[in-house]
Amino acid sequence: MSNIRNIVVLTGAGVSAESGIDTFRDAGGLWEQHRVEDVATPEAFARDPELVLRFYDMRREAIQTKAPNAAHAALARLDAEWPGELLIVTQNIDDLHERAGAKRLIHMHGEHLNAWCTGCDVRSRWTGPLIDRPACPACGAAGLLRPDVVWFGEMPYRMEDIYRAINRADLFVSIGTSGAVYPAAGFVREARAAGAMTLELNMEPSQGSHWFTEARHGPATQLVPEWVE
Ligand code: BJW
């Protein structure tokens, strides 16, 4: 990596799979138990808030019992030691990257431990259930908290910062994502257009695998530490 200074790493559900957190689109994944239209759109929340809140309460509780794996640890090590620019962009709402020690991190699809008050627009740390429609800790209004996650049709977070980093990157690495969801699925093309080398580390070829200059397939806990060393 001698000619590389700036790195952007994109991660998806596959990086947390070996920590015991379900992916979305694999066999047995979350979307097999819940239709995406029923739980991950603003329309679904307006139609049946209890179903959506129960889905996120269940995941928030489960994630808190999981621990970072060797892939999260390797990325945290890279973050601590890489002298150039580095940005880890995760689509995951879990906090395993930061629990492993990563600092240069953006959660583009939100965080399971945040609640967002649709009344006062304040985000608060939230570890418990939302199904009981608790009052917002900031404004006190009842029943207006929703999970602070990005649903289909909503704008992912910090897109300007992400595109700025991608356009400065010498290397773009995509880990554990199916490439089915935009805008993250388009980052590889943006990085290539900006002249970066692109590497996919995934269990299987993703939908956008052909866009990468190099692809390695296997479990993240093996591929990521191998790549970082
Ligand atoms: C392993 C492994 C192991 C397993 N080791 N690997 C352009 C074209 C078409 C449509 C659109 C478009 N632009 C926008 C859209 C609409 C829409 C979209 O993409 N629809 C698609 C279905 C086509 N996108 C949006 O609405 C987004 N908003 C938006 O675009 O706003 C406008 C905008 C445009 C341009 C710039 C800026 C803004 C919002 C998308 C929000 C997605 N939300 C979710 C839910 C978040 C909260 C929650 O967690 O519940 O995000 S959906 C879900 O999918 C979640 C994930 O972050 C996301 C991606 O999933 P991921 O991580 O890839 O998981 P999987 O399961 O799909 O794949 C796992 C992979 O890991 C697999 O490949 C396995 O093989 C692998 N794996 N075990 C290594 N051990």
UniProtKB/TrEMBL annotation:
Group of enzyme by EC: transferase
Residues annotated as binding substrate: 56, 59
Co-factor(s): Zn(2+)
Binding site for Zn(2+): 117, 120, 136, 139
Pfam families with a match to the protein in the record: SIR2
Domain remark in the UniProt entry: 2 residues (Tyr-56 and Arg-59) present in a large hydrophobic pocket are probably involved in substrate specificity. They are important for desuccinylation activity, but dispensable for deacetylation activity.
Signal sequence coordinates: none
Similarity comment: family membership: Belongs to the sirtuin family. Class III subfamily.
Entry-linked InterPro entries: DHS-like_NAD/FAD-binding_dom, NAD-dep_sirtuin_deacylases, Sirtuin, Sirtuin_cat_small_dom_sf, Sirtuin_class_III, Ssirtuin_cat_dom
Compartments where located: Cytoplasm
Its job: NAD-dependent lysine deacetylase and desuccinylase that specifically removes acetyl and succinyl groups on target proteins. Modulates the activities of several proteins which are inactive in their acylated form.
Gene name of the record: cobB
Catalytic residues of the enzyme: 109
Domain Deacetylase sirtuin-type: 1-229
Enzyme Commission (EC) number: 2.3.1.286
Keywords: Cytoplasm, Metal-binding, NAD, Transferase, Zinc
Residue numbers binding NAD(+): 12-31, 91-94, 176-178, 202-204, 220
Protein name listed in UniProt: NAD-dependent protein deacylase
Reaction catalyzed: N(6)-succinyl-L-lysyl-[protein] + NAD(+) + H2O = 2''-O-succinyl-ADP-D-ribose + nicotinamide + L-lysyl-[protein]; N(6)-acetyl-L-lysyl-[protein] + NAD(+) + H2O = 2''-O-acetyl-ADP-D-ribose + nicotinamide + L-lysyl-[protein]
Cofactor binding: number and manner: Binds 1 zinc ion per subunit.
PANTHER family to which the protein is assigned, alphabetical: NAD-DEPENDENT PROTEIN DEACYLASE, NAD-DEPENDENT PROTEIN DEACYLASE SIRTUIN-5, MITOCHONDRIAL-RELATED
